[in-house]
């Protein structure tokens, strides 16, 4: 593309690089958002589904992440450590100390609880069960939909980069015919 588009009758002169930056910035933003949706619905949704399928609805039925099959999963551990949407649904029960007293979790430098994943047990309260199912439902979000979305977004980005200058040229020609 040219570095700037100049028109005879339309008083628009903009560098095409700025249009490209905006279009590709939107493309990258939407692609990352689609990737995060697949991550949330797939990996984190699998963890929520494991809690629900094991019927962990209260402190008595809570299970460790190892018992749920996610013992070595760094992404699930990270989601349980930080203040994420997952923590709105998932509650934690820390194992009592040697005397049977509840343990007050230590805080990290960032202010988050330091969790002992070997002993901490997790559950979703009964009243949040439906909301968690809906929030982390995998329906419509998978790797194929991610690829299709990225392909469609790339085609749309190329289309916009081609069409906007052509439409402005068409407008300029139309105005030129009218005023000539």
Short descriptors:
180 residues; mainly alpha; two-stranded antiparallel sheet; 4 strands; elongated
Can you offer a commentary on this structure?
With 180 residues, this protein is mainly alpha-helical. Helix content is 52%, strand content 6%. It has five helices and four strands. The strands form two sheets. It has a two-stranded antiparallel sheet with strand order 1-2. The protein has a two-stranded antiparallel ribbon with strand order 3-4. α1 (16-53) packs antiparallel against α4. The longest helix has 38 residues, at 16-53. The chain is elongated, with a radius of gyration of 26 Å. The mean pLDDT is 81.
Give the helices and strands as they follow along the chain. EEHHHEEHH
Strand content is: 5-15%
Total number of strands: 4
Shape: elongated
- C-alpha Rg, in Å? 26 Å
* Low-confidence region ranges: none
Report, as a whole number of angstroms, the end-to-end distance. 28 Å
Task: Tally the helices.
Answer: 5
Q: What's the overall average pLDDT, rounded? A: 81
Secondary structure class reads mainly alpha
Largest sheet: 2 strands, antiparallel
């Amino acid at each position: 593309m040219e570095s700037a588009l100049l028109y005879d009758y339309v008083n628009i002169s903009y560098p095409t690089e700025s249009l490209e930056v905006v279009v590709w910035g939107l493309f990258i933003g939407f692609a990352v958002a689609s990737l995060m949706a697949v991550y949330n619905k797939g990996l984190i949704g699998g963890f929520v589904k494991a809690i629900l399928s094991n019927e962990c609805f209260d402190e008595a039925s809570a299970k460790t992440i190892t018992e749920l099959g996610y013992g070595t999963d760094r992404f699930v551990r990270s989601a349980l450590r930080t203040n994420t949407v997952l923590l709105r649904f998932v509650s934690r029960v820390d194992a009592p100390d040697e005397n049977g007293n509840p343990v007050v979790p230590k805080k990290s430098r960032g202010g988050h609880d330091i969790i002992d994943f070997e002993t901490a047990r997790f559950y979703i309260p009964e009243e949040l069960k439906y909301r968690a199912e809906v929030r982390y439902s995998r329906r419509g979000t998978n790797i194929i939909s991610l690829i299709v979305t990225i392909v469609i977004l790339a085609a749309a980005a190329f289309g916009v980069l081609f069409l906007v200058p052509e439409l402005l040229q068409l407008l300029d020609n139309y105005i030129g015919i009218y005023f000539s």
